[in-house]
Amino acid sequence: MGTHSHGLQSWIDRLNQAELPALAAVVQDLHRLAQQDKSSVQQLADVLLRDASLTSKVLRIGNSVYYNPSQEAIKTISRAIVMIGFDNVRLIGMSVALIDGLLVRAPREQLQELLARSFHAAVQARNIAGYVLAKHQEEVFIAALLFHLGELAFWGCGGEQADELASALAQPGVDVDEAVQQVLGTSFRQLTQGLVKSWNLGDIVSQAHNTANRNDPTVFSVNLGARISQAALEGWDSAAMESLIEEMANFIGVTPEEALQQVFASAEEAVKVATTFGASKLCKLIPNTDPEQIREQQELRRARLLQPNLLTLQQALQDLGMMASKRGDVAQIIDTLLKGLHQGAGLERVMLVVLADGHSCFRTKRVVGEGSQGWLSDFVLPVDQPEQQHIFSYVLRNREALWMGVPASYNLAELVTQPIRKSLGQGMFFIAPLLAGTREIGVVYADNRVSGRALKHEQFVAFQRFSQLTGRCLDALSKRS
User: Fold this and answer.
1) Nearest to 12, CA basis, from 88, 133, 215, 21
2) Where are the domains of the chain?
3) How far is CA 15 from CA 99, 187, 337, 378, in A?
């Protein structure tokens, strides 16, 4: 067992010659068949038939409910190719070769975790690709499965050096890349690139390691699948997952909610695929999408969300009361308003828009809350024409605060126009006029869109109170100057 390799070439040679020549040959041959337009059924069958155990496993998987829902028995490889398709049989062959070539030797925990993540990535990537590509989804599956080929090969065949790296990585505060470089004399990424090159696996895998490569949807699907499978380990509600869901939604043209549902569906499918491939011990390593568990995670997250703070609320009201009689400056008044509504009343996003450009439009003056920064540059509304009214002008003209999204305001729902919904999202919100005496200043807006929690009556009472008091402060200010 005393083999010691250091540096990229020494690892490539060791893996190709001593450790994985059979796996390399199968993977290479299967890959080559995808590159030729005229690959025959016979050529594919020949590659798989060279290895009896591979043949029987491919047939077993081909007969599973997942690949063969009609359950008409498949007894030969050529029949399998006819029944479930050339690409699927090639994909099954590649997956089985990988699982057997690696797991049979040293089923160490790092290898199992990474294989589970690779299967998860492969299913995510293939299903993402389904939205943007007419064909080649199987190629995307295989490329995502091989995305960490170097690291898989190392944990499968690294022997004593794998033990050495495992204990180095177990140290608290370790720099992973540095530890890998130390033990292997190269990085996992270089090792993957090196194997991909020496096994002639084409470009998708190498290109997918470069996140900048967004213009090729095949490559980008692989990359996204790999990143989603990684982020899922931090939790479905992690910040990393949230931004990937956004990215995926934009890429495949659906809403973030739909993208998240697709990600869950793919994770569940990945468990099925791993079971089908006879790697059921990997299943428990794919993050669970059980609604109960997800709900618990989300509740924990909500518990970290903004909570109303009565002391802050009362202090802000008091400060505004003082400024109404003793004169504060505009910035101070607005700061107190936002602080009172956000930290005091617990309203997650608050925006103040003011009349600008000779009262021809509303411009965003101040915002507070997660994800509200974009409004500062993006949110501009023309003051409406009588024939096309919108809620901001309506509120200012009618001089009343509204709680939108409750039955009392349903008759005004069409005033929440498409552009407003696009900027602010769907759902309940509070909106109130800001008036300095009789002068129209602007409009205050607030919602709980960050967590999706319902707005509460006491929040509305506070919201009305703050808008009125702020108006009184601004009025007092104008009378004195």
Assistant:
1) 21
2) 8-301, 310-480
3) 16, 15, 66, 54
Three-class SS string for 203-243? HHHHHHCCCCCCCCHHHHHHHHHHHHHHHHHHCCCCHHHHH
Q: How far apart are CA 413 and CA 398, in angstroms?
A: 16
Same-fold call for 8-301 versus 310-480: no
In this predicted model, what pLDDT tens digit does every residue of 326-385 receive, in sequence order? 777 899 999 999 999 999 999 999 999 999 988 889 999 999 988 788 888 888 888 877
Q: Number of helices (H) and strands (E), helices first, in the chain?
A: 23, 6
Digit-coded pLDDT (tens) for 164-203: 998 898 888 889 999 999 999 999 999 998 988 888 777 7
On whether the CB atoms of residues 67 and 88 are closer than 8 A, the answer is yes
Q: 372 with 459: CB under 8 angstroms?
A: no
Amino acid letter, residue 439: R
Q: ∠121-198-205 over CA atoms, to 5°?
A: 25
CATH architecture of 310-480: 2-Layer Sandwich (3.30)
- 143 neighbors 224 (Cβ within 8 angstroms): no
pTM of the model: 0.61
CA separation, residue 229 to residues 115, 131, 191, 271 (Å): 11, 18, 21, 12
> What number of other Cβ atoms are within 10 A of residue 377's Cβ?
8
In angstroms and rounded to an integer, the radius of gyration of the C-alpha atoms of the chain is 30
The superfamily in CATH containing domain 8-301 is Hypothetical protein af1432 (1.10.3210.10)
d(CA 210, CA 230): 16
Burial 427-438 (b: 16+ CB within 10 A, else e): ebbbbbbbbbee
Secondary structure of residue 196 in the 3-state scheme: helix
CB neighbours of residue 166 within 10 Å: 15
Tell me phi and psi for residue 124, to 5 degrees. Answer: -55, -50
User: In this structure, are residues 447 and 349 in contact, taking their beta carbons and an 8 Å threshold?
Assistant: yes
DSSP at 421: H
Do 270 and 284 contact (CB within 8 A), yes or no?
A: no
> What are the φ and ψ backbone dihedral angles of 221, each rounded to 5 degrees?
-60, -45
Residues 74, 61: contact at Cβ < 8 Å?
A: no
